[in-house]
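Progress note, sequence design subtask.
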C-alpha cells in the first residue's frame, strides 16, 4: 500500500510536533514555600523581629508575600530549596529538629553564619536576597512606619499648594 503525499506530510508533521512537545522544557514546581512555610517564617522573623516600635515582619505578612515571590521565580525557588537544606543541617548541628524549633539565640547564630559565609555561596546569597525582600515588603506596609515618625508619601493627597507660585526666601 503506497502512501500519498498528504499522508507522508501528516505523519512527518505529527512526529515533529510530538518531538517538540517531549523536548520543550517544563517549568519546575517550587519545592520550598508550600512544603516549609514555618521554616521560611522563622527565618524572616529572625531577620526582622518584632520590637517595641516595629510590629515585626511576620505580623506584617512579609512571609506570605515572599513565599509568593519565591513561587513565581524558579531561580529564587531553587536558591531557597538549597538554602533550606543548608538551614536544616545547621539546625541539626545546633541540636534542634528544625530551624523554627530552635531558640531565638541559636537562630540568630545561624543567620549570622549565613551572613558571614563567603560571597556567592548559597547561604550568603539567600541571606542577602531574603533580607532585601523582607525589608522591601516590611517597609512598604504603613504599619511599619510608626517607629520612624514617617507620615507617609505626599501622594495621593498631593501637594495642596501646587497651583500657587513658589514662595520666595
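Output:
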Amino acid at each position: 500500500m503506497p502512501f500519498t503525499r498528504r499522508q507522508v506530510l501528516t505523519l512527518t508533521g505529527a512526529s515533529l510536533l510530538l518531538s517538540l512537545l517531549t523536548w520543550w522544557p517544563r517549568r519546575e514546581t517550587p519545592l520550598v514555600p508550600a512544603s516549609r512555610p514555618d521554616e521560611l517564617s522563622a527565618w524572616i522573623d529572625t531577620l526582622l523581629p518584632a520590637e517595641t516600635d516595629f510590629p515585626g515582619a511576620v505580623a506584617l505578612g512579609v512571609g506570605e508575600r515572599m513565599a509568593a515571590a519565591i513561587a513565581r521565580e524558579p531561580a529564587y525557588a531553587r536558591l531557597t530549596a538549597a538554602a533550606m537544606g543548608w538551614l536544616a543541617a545547621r539546625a541539626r548541628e545546633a541540636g534542634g529538629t528544625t530551624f523554627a524549633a530552635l531558640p531565638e539565640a541559636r537562630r540568630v547564630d545561624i543567620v549570622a553564619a549565613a551572613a558571614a559565609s563567603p560571597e556567592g555561596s548559597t547561604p550568603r546569597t539567600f541571606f542577602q536576597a531574603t533580607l532585601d525582600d523582607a525589608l522591601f515588603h516590611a517597609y512598604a506596609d504603613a504599619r511599619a512606619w510608626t517607629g520612624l515618625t514617617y507620615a507617609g508619601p505626599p501622594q495621593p493627597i498631593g501637594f495642596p499648594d501646587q497651583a500657587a507660585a513658589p514662595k520666595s526666601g
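DSSP finds seven helices and no strands in the chain. Work on this subtask will continue into the next period as scheduled.
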